[in-house]
């Protein structure tokens, strides 16, 4: 089936100081086509779509939209020409309602009442239930995404760009989204779909352009390829599946019972009656859509949030009222999700960042004085063991790429010989090869008898490493179940199904 | 068009080049200012920067350098520890006054007793007075989340009022024939902060400043508390993750800076100033903020910056008396130094880049 060409990209090159983000990239999208832009983190997908959306200008190359030259100098111009984009990170005001947020993105918004009616109409038409009068701060991540999508649809776009849209959705919500996208495509809207999730792309997209290190390495029809083939095109090498060393489950190493804490984050999620245990040698995977209490759970386990002493036990020692230093001493280490500013100090060197958490367990202080040469040795050990690409241990953490810094930070926690290790998003933003390596070390630590809690939004990752599986939903944790034998449908239901579906019945 | 671009790692070159470049730019801009006032800019610059060191009165003025630099360094080091941690004590001037009043009160209370313990106890009282004054913004911040910049700054004016009250009331010299001002410590050897070596202007305050600089340097680079101070300033959430208690850190940093400012006040009142007067404070607490930044918030840098700032003080006074320059012009000149320093400082973390010609 041939479609009239909508967008053609030819020979686009864009360089940043020290890195070529895109080099001679060409592809084309037909009207009504769902086109995947596939690649690992750092492959140049985001830069490419930013150029199409007018946020960044290419150094060379040309784009045409319906045969006419297309060089948007700002997003407003791109929108006027019919190009809309839903970003991975939403730009919504939590203290305003849905209609007000939509109005803020418009050049000349209609009266509020009329706008609300249009939002209702569009949400009905495309099966994206959304109440225009609700406060955005109260919406789930999936619902917030719907606000962004509807904001785009109100402009009646010819090309809709979606940047990793499913990372914040439950499996059921993904289905709803895909239904909407297919409907849009049938009506002639082209969709440029950015992702690194191959199964999704197989199910949704008509064509795919695969990027690696800024260059197009292949174009293919996803339905005709296996996920593994596409993954190897994306990574450029054969992939190794982590292997699990089976260890006999030992005694309980981490016990959390009826833990409830308020969130210190504005519009955060309070934890409500969390209970679970993790035995030595066990990996507990905690899934859930972002913003359901993951950050708060990490803070409550690391010791940044305190509770009553017996709410958290490490090797049967009550630690609930202890801070991070004492918990590390008791054998619990934690790795927060946010690398820049929470897990690491961006402006400090890797040596100083190694001391940040390893000082206690590696014995790097003497009478309050820091043993910098010992700390440097430990930092070098991490760099070697985790293949961290850096000129040396003295560079600032912010100078490392996200993936490299993540490898360093994972190594920092995993190499302290702790009995309990809690990790939030272990492979977020890390390329596939490094992700496989990090997962392997998680399994290795479990094999050595550590108890691990892995919080992640990547279900495939959890199914790969976890022995038992639980879901955080609105601050509550489901009862952990053995991972073996779980189906995607069951997981979806544990995740609370599709959020906000009841609104559909009230609307109109 | 020029564009600022963040450097991947801070430039070491600009970290050290910034202060000298700022000094040169200040001389140029200050020279233009002096020229528009009808003075010969070269003569003024020479009077400020050269004469105190090598001019005809250098034998006396060189000693004045340490006398002025001592309190500046002592206060600036305390401030720098707080600034490094993101705690902004702007009210060192008030803590300096309170240190002087507390210390002087102890000495005057026991007048005319002679004991070798009087001066050490006065030192403790001076540090305590400054510490106490700094605890007000610290506790208000930790308990009620008030802004320490505003509270510490406003407390300077409270301290000045207390100072006026002391000079005309409770510390007034009973043999002063009605003039405001306390007894002069130069007439009370047991409580006097006398010169240890007069040609260099060295008294106990200078000793304390130099010792504090070394201790603070060791604290920041080698000690865990110094690491926590730097971490809290650069990445507050990472500091909490590391295990820093933010309340304790505020109390610690405000306390240290307050106590050091109080010490500076005590050494001044018992030494060069000699007595509590209405206009006892001369702005060391505010100028120390410039010194702290000029010294890159680094204790050893602050020592150099303190001497440089003292030079502009001593040379500025010379220029005021011998060339008839208004003191306000000298203050503008000193303020320019901070201005240029902060402006040039941008280059440590950013670089200029010509924006690529857009089409």
Comma- or semicolon-separated keywords:
heterodimer; A: 508 residues; alpha/beta; Rossmann fold; 2 domains; 7-stranded mixed β-sheet; 6-stranded mixed β-sheet; 17 helices; 23 strands; 33% helix; 24% strand; B: mainly alpha; two-stranded antiparallel ribbon; 14 helices
Outline:
The complex is a heterodimer of chains A (508) and B (359). Chain A is 33% helix and 24% strand. Chain A is α/β, with parallel strands linked by helices.
Which helices and strands occur, and which strands form pairs?
The complex is a heterodimer of chains A (508) and B (359).
Chain A: E1 5-16, E2 19-30, E3 34-38, H1 45-52, E4 60-65, E5 68-69, H2 75-80, E6 83-86, H3 98-104, H4 112-125, H5 141-153, E7 159-163, H6 171-186, E8 190-195, H7 198-204, E9 207-212, E10 215-220, H8 227-235, E11 252-261, E12 271-279, E13 283-287, H9 294-302, E14 312-314, E15 317-318, H10 324-330, E16 332-335, H11 350-358, E17 365-366, E18 369-370, H12 372-385, H13 402-414, E19 420-424, H14 432-447, E20 451-455, H15 459-465, E21 468-473, E22 476-477, E23 481-482, H16 488-494, H17 503-506
Parallel strand pairs in A: 3-8, 3-9, 6-7, 7-8, 13-20, 13-21, 16-19, 19-20
Antiparallel strand pairs in A: 1-2, 1-4, 4-5, 9-10, 11-12, 11-14, 14-15, 17-18, 21-22, 21-23
Helix pairs in contact in A: 3-5, 11-12, 11-13, 12-13, 13-14
Chain B: E1 2-6, H1 12-36, H2 41-49, H3 51-54, H4 58-84, H5 92-109, H6 118-144, H7 148-168, H8 204-222, H9 224-234, H10 236-242, H11 246-270, H12 284-294, H13 299-323, H14 327-349, E2 350-354
Antiparallel strand pairs in B: 1-2
Helix pairs in contact in B: 1-2, 1-14, 2-13, 4-8, 4-9, 4-11, 4-12, 4-13, 5-6, 5-7, 5-11, 5-12, 6-7, 6-11, 8-9, 8-13, 9-10, 12-13, 12-14
Number of discrete helical segments of chain B = 14
Q: Number of DSSP helices of chain A?
A: 17
Alpha-beta content class of chain A: alpha/beta
The CATH class name of the largest domain in chain A reads Alpha Beta
Structural class of chain B: mainly alpha
Sketch the topology of chain B as an H/E string, one letter per element. EHHHHHHHHHHHHHHE
Q: Residue ranges of chain A: pLDDT <50 for 5 or more in a row?
A: 503-508
Instruction: Give the CA-based shape of chain B.
Output: globular
| CATH topology-level name of the largest domain in chain A | Rossmann fold
Outline of chain A, from the CA principal axes? Answer: globular
Summarize the biggest pleated sheet of chain B.
Answer: 2 strands, antiparallel
Fraction of helical residues of chain B: over 70%
How many runs of DSSP E, i.e. beta strands of chain B? 2
Contiguous low-pLDDT stretches of chain B (5 residues minimum) are none
Span between N and C termini of chain A? 37 Å
Mean pLDDT of chain B: 92
Biggest interface goes to: A-B, 38 and 24 residues
From the coordinates shown, what is the CATH architecture of the largest domain in chain A? 3-Layer(aba) Sandwich
Output the radius of gyration of chain B: 22 Å
Count of separate structural domains of chain A: 2
């Amino acid at each position: 089936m041939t479609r009239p060409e909508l967008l053609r990209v030819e020979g686009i090159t864009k360089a940043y100081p020290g890195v070529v983000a895109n080099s001679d990239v060409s592809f084309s999208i037909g009207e009504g086509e769902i086109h995947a832009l596939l690649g690992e983190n750092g492959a140049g997908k985001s830069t490419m779509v930013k150029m199409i959306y007018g946020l960044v200008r290419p150094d060379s190359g040309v784009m045409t939209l319906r045969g006419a030259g297309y060089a948007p100098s700002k997003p407003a111009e791109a929108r006027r020409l019919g190009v809309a984009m839903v970003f991975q990170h939403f730009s919504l005001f939590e203290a305003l309602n849905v209609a007000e947020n939509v109005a803020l993105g418009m050049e000349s918004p209609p009266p509020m009442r009329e706008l609300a009616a249009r939002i209702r109409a569009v949400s009905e038409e495309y099966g994206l239930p959304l109440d225009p009068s609700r406060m955005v701060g109260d919406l789930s991540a999936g619902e917030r995404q719907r606000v962004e999508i509807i904001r785009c649809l109100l402009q009646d776009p010819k090309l809709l760009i979606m940047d990793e849209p499913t990372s914040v959705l439950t499996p059921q919500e993904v289905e709803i989204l895909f239904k909407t996208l297919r409907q849009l495509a049938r009506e002639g809207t082209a969709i440029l779909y950015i992702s690194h999730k191959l199964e999704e792309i197989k199910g949704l997209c008509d064509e795919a352009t695969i990027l690696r290190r800024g260059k197009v390495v292949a174009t293919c029809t996803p339905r005709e390829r296996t996920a593994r083939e596409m993954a190897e095109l994306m990574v450029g090498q054969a992939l190794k599946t982590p292997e699990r060393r089976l260890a006999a489950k030992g005694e309980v190493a981490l016990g959390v019972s009826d833990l409830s804490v308020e969130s210190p984050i504005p519009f955060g999620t309070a934890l409500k009656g969390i209970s679970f245990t993790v035995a030595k040698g066990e990996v507990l995977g905690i899934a859930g859509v972002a913003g359901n209490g993951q950050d708060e759970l990490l803070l409550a386990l690391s010791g940044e949030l305190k509770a009553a002493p017996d709410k958290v036990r490490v090797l049967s020692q009550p630690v609930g009222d202890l801070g991070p230093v004492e918990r590390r001493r008791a054998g619990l280490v934690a790795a927060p999700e946010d690398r820049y500013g929470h897990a690491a100090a961006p402006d400090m060197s890797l040596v100083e960042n190694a001391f940040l958490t390893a000082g206690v367990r590696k014995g790097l202080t003497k009478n309050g004085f820091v043993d910098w040469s010992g700390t440097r040795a430990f930092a070098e050990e991490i760099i070697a063991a985790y293949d961290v690409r850096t000129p040396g241990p003295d560079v600032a953490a912010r100078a490392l790429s996200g993936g490299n810094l993540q490898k360093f930070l994972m190594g920092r926690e995993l190499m302290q010989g702790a009995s309990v290790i809690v990790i939030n998003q272990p492979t977020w933003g890390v390329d596939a090869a490094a992700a496989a390596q990090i997962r392997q070390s998680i399994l290795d630590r479990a094999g050595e008898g550590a108890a691990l809690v892995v919080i992640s939004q990547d279900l495939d990752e959890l199914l790969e490493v976890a022995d038992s599986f639980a879901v955080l939903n609105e601050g509550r944790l489901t009862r952990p179940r053995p991972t073996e034998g779980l189906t995607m449908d069951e997981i979806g239901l544990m995740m609370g199904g599709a959020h906000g579906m009841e609104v559909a019945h009230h609307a109109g | 068009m020029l564009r600022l671009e963040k450097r991947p790692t801070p430039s070491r070159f600009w970290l050290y080049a910034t202060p000298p470049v700022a000094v040169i730019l200040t001389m140029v801009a200050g020279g233009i200012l002096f020229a528009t006032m009808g003075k010969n800019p070269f003569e003024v610059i020479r009077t400020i920067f050269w004469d105190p060191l090598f001019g005809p009165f250098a034998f006396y003025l060189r000693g004045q350098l340490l006398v002025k630099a001592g309190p500046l360094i002592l206060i600036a080091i305390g401030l720098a520890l707080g600034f490094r941690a993101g705690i902004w004590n702007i009210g060192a001037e008030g803590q300096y006054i309170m240190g002087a009043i507390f210390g002087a009160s102890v000495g005057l209370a026991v007048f005319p007793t002679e004991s070798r313990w009087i001066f050490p106890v006065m030192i403790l009282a001076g540090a305590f007075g400054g510490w106490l004054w700094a605890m007000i913004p610290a506790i208000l911040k930790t308990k009620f989340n008030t802004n320490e910049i505003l509270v510490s700054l406003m407390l300077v004016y409270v301290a000045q009022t207390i100072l006026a009250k002391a000079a005309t009331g409770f510390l007034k010299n009973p043999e002063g024939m009605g003039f405001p001002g306390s007894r002069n410590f130069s007439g009370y050897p047991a409580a006097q902060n006398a010169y240890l070596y007069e040609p260099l202007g060295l008294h106990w305050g200078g000793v304390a400043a130099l010792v504090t600089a070394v201790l603070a340097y060791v604290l920041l680079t080698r000690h865990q508390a110094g690491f926590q101070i730097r971490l809290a300033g650069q990445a507050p959430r990472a500091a909490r993750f590391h295990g820093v208690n933010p309340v304790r850190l505020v109390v610690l940093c405000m306390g240290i800076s307050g106590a050091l400012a109080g010490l500076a006040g005590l050494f001044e009142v018992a030494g060069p100033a000699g007595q509590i007067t209405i206009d006892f404070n001369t702005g060391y607490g505010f100028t120390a903020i410039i010194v702290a930044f000029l010294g890159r918030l680094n204790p050893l840098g602050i020592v150099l910056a303190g001497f440089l700032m003292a030079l502009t003080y001593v040379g500025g006074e010379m220029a005021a008396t011998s060339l008839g320059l208004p003191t306000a012009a000298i203050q503008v000149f000193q303020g320019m130094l901070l201005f240029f320093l902060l402006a040039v400082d941008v280059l440590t973390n950013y670089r200029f880049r010509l924006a690529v010609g857009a089409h």
